[in-house]
Amino acid sequence: MNMTLEYNGGSELLYNSVKIQNVNVEMQNGADSSQLTMKDLLSWIRTHMIKERPEMFMKGDTVRPGVLALVNDCDWELSGQLDTTLEEKDVVVFISTLHGG
After folding, report:
1. How buried is residue 21: exposed, middle or buried, by Cβ count under 10 Å (0-12/13-18/19+)?
2. What would the pLDDT profile of 34-66 be if each residue is shown by its tens digit?
3. What DSSP string describes 42-82?
4. pLDDT tens, residue by residue, 66-80
5. Around Cβ 61, how many Cβ atoms within 10 Å?
6. Which CATH number fits domain 2-96: 2.40.170.20, 3.40.50.2000, 3.10.20.30, 3.90.1150.10?
7. Considering the chain, what is the average pLDDT of its residues?
8. CA distances from residue 72 to 5, 6, 54, 56, 69 in whole angstroms, order as listed
9. Under a CB-based contact definition with an 8 Å cutoff, are residues 14 and 7 in contact?
10. pTM listed for this prediction
């Protein structure tokens, strides 16, 4: 499934400062390929995208507290969080609200 991933607010530092990535997410074995969820996407990101310090982006199976997730400009908390269903060409944005100082 082709989609766009965007990282802002410092989360892009985990991806070599790349803010926008067009990706093709392959479903895991046995999963229904027509029903990609945010949980599936986060698992895919952990496996295929994050090379170092995944704990800075994820806690367990979800994003860390302080990381906002938007699906097509809608807060994922309004659409089911990990159960949010994703579709072809969706745009998923991750924004870190945590800053040092």
Report:
1. middle
2. 689 999 999 999 888 887 788 888 899 999 998
3. HHHHHHHT--S-GGGTEETTEEPTTEEEEETTEEGGGTTGG
4. 899 999 999 999 999
5. 11
6. 3.10.20.30
7. 86
8. 10, 11, 24, 23, 10
9. yes
10. 0.85
List residues bridging with 41 in a β-sheet: none
Report the distance separating Cα 42 and Cα 35, nearest Å.
14
Quick one: pLDDT band at residue 8, thresholds 50, 70, 90? confident
Q: Where are the domains of the chain?
A: 2-96
Strands 74-75 and 2-8: unpaired
Alpha-carbon distances, residue 7 vs 30, 34, 35 (angstroms): 29, 25, 23
Amino acid, res. 8 = N
**Residue appearing with tokens 């945010």:** 38
